[in-house]
Structures are given as structure tokens and as C-alpha cells.
Model the fold of this input.
Amino acid sequence: MTDASPDRSRSHPRASGDGFSLAKLLLEGRAFFALIAIIIVFSLLSPYYFSVANFLTMASHVAIFGILAVGMLLVILNGGIDLSVGSTLGFSGVIAGFLMQGVQLTALGVILYPPVWVVAVLVCVLGALVGLVNGVLIAWLKVPAFVATLGMLYVVRGAALLMTNGLTYNDLGGKPELGNTGFEWLGFNRLLDIPVGVLVMAVIALIGSIILNRTAFGRWLYASGGNERAAELSGVPVKRVQVSVYMLSGICASVAGLILSSELTSAGPTAGTSYELTAIAAVVIGGAALTGGRGNIRGTLVGAFVIGFLSDGLVIIGVSAYWQTVFTGAVIVLAVLLNAIQYRRRVKLPSSAGSPPTSPQKDKAQTADPALEKTAG
Amino acid sequence: MNAAPEFEPAAGDTVLAARNIVKTYGGTHALKGVNFDIHRGKVTTLFGENGAGKSTLMKILSGVTTPTSGSIELDGQPVTFSSSSDARDRGISIIHQELSLAPNLSVRDNIFMGREIPGATGVDFAEEARQTRLLMADLEEDIDPMTLVQDLRLGQQQIVEIARALSVDSRILIMDEPTSALSATEVEVLFKVIRDLTARGVSIVYISHHLEEALQITDHAVVLRDGAITATANARHINLEWIVRNMVGENFDLGTPPTGHAFGEIALSVDEVSVADVTSSERLVVDRLSLDVRSGEIVCIYGLMGAGRTELLECIAGRLSAAGGRILLEGKDISRLSIAERIARGLVLVPEDRQRDGLVQTMSVGANLSLASIGAFVKGMFLSRSQERSLVDGSIRDVRVKTAGGGAPIGSLSGGNQQKVVIGKMLTTSPKVMLLDEPSRGIDIGAKAEVFRLLSERAANGLAVVFSTSEVTECLSIAHRIIVMRRGRISAEFGADATKEEIMAASGEAVLSNHEEHRSHYRDRR
Done:
């Protein structure tokens, strides 16, 4: 999954350039089999579950976490962790909302209404900047990743709350005469009947997969995550790689923030609270090792779908939100358990996959149904 | 297999006997029906190349793993060990090859880890400290019980590891490479302790790659090759050649300096370089050292642990920053360049610890081999799979890695082949100067010879080679010039015609008693 072994077939639509043998399928495929099992079980339990419309709805819920998880995967492959993505997601939405209201330049006495694409680019730059701060703290100032990104989790969330004084931007529609309409396109529109958010996730996953499998950067990332000292002695710019993955993770968080606030047509400063934990869970369920160096995009996406399809399925069959939390937690623990077994099987390796550094508790209502976010703040 | 198995019954009563032990991992047979006896109050040494099955056999005897088939008899009674602590309770303990200490705890806490002495208020720390002091006195090592293990040098950590095994009062003590980081003096002390133990009736199983050293202490020698015992003999009747012949099944040497090519220009010039100690900046581990190496020349750096060899090589490669001096590569100052830039200009390092610094365990053989030369197969933005494969395949052929292919996991290779991957990785960058820190560490004698042959071939083609070693025999193999380091400085310089005694004296090593004389009555039993 991480190597350059020859003879790769394209066996999965989402994993470009990454194939597998039968043995690999059995080991790596467990998350995939779990997903199939989830679909079968809920289809039997509810007549509404197995329909294209429902799958597309669920997929658009998955998209937010899927995008976050791709960024998180890059960080985890590097042996790090990024706890700040949920806050970055919220902050990005708030900044987008702020920009959509118009930027008042008092000195010039004008109000600028940037077009939507400018808003999107600025928000992504913002996410990259948050990632840059994380990366510099971790790579150059040697702050442990857990602590650095935990700090940023608070700082960025605080910044989002300060921006709006705790309130929510409800009007993101823009005005035709100002030329800034179209923000809802990301969250509401469909291309070929597929929600734009899902397509964005697919594109990001594809780019991520190409980066990991086909570029020098991807190889550097796997190498420095697997053994930083060996990578450094082989001439890999380990610090640059480290800073880059946090920046990429930040950008992913911003894109997710744009999609979420577009879906909700509102931007609240508390959006995305605890989403980082869901993203980490998706990466872990997808078979990545928290110690770095192991994992791939395919697994991570499947992991995101497992969590999303499970949560929505439980909602559809009317299981109480409290039980949903228990179920999701159990799935995560089971996934980590299987990871540990998988990596223990490999000979001559230092102990791999530990337990996730944070408890996987989260507010099920948010995870299962982002629409409830509308009232937040 | 040109040496027929040689067997000689051993004297003394058997404490532990392994009968027809077979151990398979997947399809490979690590042990093929081994019979192994441990005798009361004797030192039994197990010789064998890497991958011969020594460690597997010891893991079975100490309860770490269970055999696929076969039985173990303790005092004539069949036993099965459910775990290593089960074996320890029955008086069998093991000093592992890899250190298993907690670096953040003190020496005292490490020694009594898991077996804390209960006192009136929890743990009786005073008693633990007292016993630790006694152990340290036995080992003649001046280590305070409260010192943190991470503050000790590697050799002292090994002493702590030994002390921990001694503290258990076991009847059978298995020592897997206990001396790899010890100085000659420390080895002498350890041997004295071993003799004390055997006099008290403790049985020792000893494993070491230092054959000469092991010959000094052993009573009984057992040679293992490819999972089967090829020879056993009383130590009085054997010598080094007998061991090597039975280990590898052929006579060979480590090579001679390549001749027939003229040395080129000075490729690497180290000018008054100093490196400060990481722990205390006042001490210099490399002290204003100067060295010139010409292209095509092979230079060997000999020295004891702590002589500054590793620090010198890591400083040249850019891993450590110099406290002073300049490093010139082909006349250009590279002192300020990063590791990557030095590699790009043709200076590479094969590090001492290949697990920690050389290999990425999560990647395949191929990805490890190509890691340092990714730029060579990037087309536009993307890696070219086909170019990478041809580079990897070429490299596997070039350095003769025995592997199922570039896609095989790196962990599937033996130590020697892993080392060849690390060397191959750096060779694919087409270096001008290659530094190798203890390239023969932990690899068997066959792989050692292959590594040296590879280096002399490259030197004949103009590569400047600098390698360090702590085994004198290796100095006298392919090196044109031998530098001896002592306390961060060059204490002597020899040509290829130096003698072992000269080199060891220059390093400050106590000259070990010459066992060859003791064993003059060697007889070939065939």
C-alpha cells in the first residue's frame, strides 16, 4: 500500500495507481467489508435505506468528513496528528461569511464585495496559514504535534467566536447586483445528479492519491513517516514535508468549511466542533497506523463512509442518538484493534498502531445531521 | 558444505535439553530438528551466521516463543514454558540482543522493574539501591543506582542489562550478544563475572559475533547453520578456523586492498573538525581532527566505543554540526550544506544502526533502494514507475541483494541483505565519497565479505571509501590505510601491512591475552 511494487492494477475507482493482491484485499479490505455489511443490514432493517437518493444524501454528509480525513491522513502518515481541523473548518466558514457580507475599508470609504471564487481562494489561503503555524511549531520549534494542534484548536475556535461575537452569519446568498452570488452552489447544486460536495471530495481524494503514489513528495511523506532519521539521511527534506502536510490538512479543512457553510447557507463559529475526532476515526478505520508511514486514501475514504453510513443508518431506523454514539465508538475501537492485529503480523517491526490519542466521543447529532448546525451559535 | 559435521559428546550433567526442536515461520524452517544441551556450570557458546536460527532457539529455550514440534527437558523432566516469565520462574533468564531498558527510569528502577522489593511503605527503594550497588561493584562499573539510563553510554546500558539478568539468581543465563557495545576492559570484567557464576553452578549460554572473544570464555561450542547443528566440540579442541569453517562451510577471508588502480585527487578533506558532545558542550567528542581521502582509496577508522568515530562520520555527512573546522569535498567547502545537498554533491553516509537510521521499515525493498535517488526518475511532476523499477532491479543485481523482488517488505530480508539495501540506496546516487559507519555490524561473515568485495570494486572505479569498525580483523581486510581514533583524535595511522597488536595498542585497548597460544594443541578431528 505504500510501496513501489510493480504490477499494480486499478481495482478500485477511488484509488488511482494503487492496487492489491488477494492477501492484501483480505487484510486491507476489512473496512470495505464492514461498509458492505452496514449497507446490507440497514437495507434489511429499513425500506428507505437502499435507494440512490438516500445514498447521495448520505454521501453528501460523508463528504465533509471525507475531505477532512484526506488531509488528516497526510498528517497521520507523517506520524503527526492535527486536532485543529474542526476549528479551522468553523473559522473558514466564518471568514467566508464575513467576506460575503462585504469588507468595509474605512480608509477608502468603500465596501468590497469579493466574488465567490475570490472568497473561496482566500479561505483556502487562511486554512493553509493555520497549517503553516502548526507545521512551523512542530517541525522547527519541536512542539509535539498533539500539543501544537491542540493549542491551535482553541486559538482558531476563539478567533472564530471573536469574529462574530458568537453569532452566526445567516445570509450567504450574496446579491446579483453586487456580483457575489453562487455561494450555495457548493452545498446545494448537483452535477450529473451528484452533490457538488461529493464531487469535491472525489477530486480531493484523487489529487491526494496521485500525490501519495505518483510524486516524489508522496514518497518522501511515506519515508519520513516510516522512519524520519533514515529519510533525513537519504536526503529527504523532512521538515519541509512536515510543514507541507499540515498546510494541506489546513486547506482540506477550509474546503470542508466552505462546503458545510454552503450546505447550511449559514456560517456559525461553532461549526465543526469535534469533527477532527471523526476525521481521525475515519483514517484509523481505513487502516492507517497512528505511528505513521502506513495508510492510503482508499482506506481512509472507506473509513469515512463506514462512519457516515452507520450514523445515518441508525438515524433512519430510529435508534436513539445516545446509542448511536455508543455504536460509533465501538466501531472505532474495533478498527484500532484490527489495525494492531494487522501490524503485529508483520515480522521484525517495532510495535505499531497504538490507540487513538483522544477518546472518540463526539456529539452524534452533529455528525449524523449537519443540518442541526443551522441553529448553532 | 565441505566440512562434515563434527560431534563430540560434552562432559558434565545436562540441565536443560532441547530435543528435535522444529520451528517454522510460514513456509520457512527456522529450526530443523535441533538437539541442544546446556550443561551445569559450563559456558556453552552457540556460533552461527545471521539467520542460522540462534536467536530463534534461544527464544524457545527462554519461553519467548513455542516450538512447532519437539520437546524441552529441564532436569530430565519434560516442560513447556507458557511465557518468558514462566521460564524465569523456573530459573532461566535471557539477556536480549536489543536493549530492553526504560531510558527514562533510573538504573535501580530498571534492574528491579516488575520485581520490586516490597517494603513497609510500598517499595523498599533503599534495599533495591543497596543491591544495585552490589551488582555494580561485581561488574566493576562505577554507576550510581539513581542515574537515569538515558544518561549512560551504550556500553554502560548493556552493563545494566547484564546486571538485571544477574539480579534474578537464575540457574541458566542466556546471553545473546552481551558484549556488542562493551570495551575490552568491560568484556574482561564480564568474563570474570561469568567465571564466578559458572563456579557457583550457573549454566551460561553465550552468543556472540565476536568469535575470538567467545572462544576465550566458552567451555563448549555448538555451531548452527541453516537451522541445523553442524558441529559440537569441547572448546579445548577447537580454534577460530574450525568455527568459521563449520559456520559458513568454506574457507574464505575478508579480502585484500584492491590494487592496480592509481588514487585520484583528494576527494574528501576534513580540516581541523571538532564536534561537541551532545550532553555537555564543553567536551569535544571529535577534537580538531584532520583527514584527507583520495578517490579510489579505502580508509578504515578503528577505535573503541566512544572514540568519536560515529560523531566524525555523522558530522562529515551533515547530521551533526561541527563545532569548528571545515569539510571540503573535491576542494569545495560543504560545511554549511544540508544532508540533501551533500548527497547531491556526492557525499553519502551509510549509518551505524541500519534499523534506526538506515531503513524505512514500512516501505518495500524497492522503495528503500530508490529513496535517496527519487530525482532520477521523476518525469515532470510524477514518478516514472518503469524507470524506478529498472533502477531498483539494477541496484538489486548490483549489490546482490537476495530478495523476492523490489516489492518485498524490507523486514523479510536478513540483516546482511538489509545492509546491502542501505549501501545500494546510497550507491544509486553515484557518490564520490562513501562513508560507512560499522558496515559489518550485526551481519554474518558471508555478508561481511560480500559487502567488502562490493566496496573494493567501487574503490577500483574511483569511489573514495571511509569505513569504521571495532573489529581489528576488518581493518586488515580491504583498507589501504588504517586510522586509529582515540578520544576524538587520530592516535595512529598505518598502512595495510599493520599488525593487530599495533592497531589495538594505538586505540588504547588493553591487549587481550592471546588465546591462540592457549589453543596451540588444536587438532582436526576428521
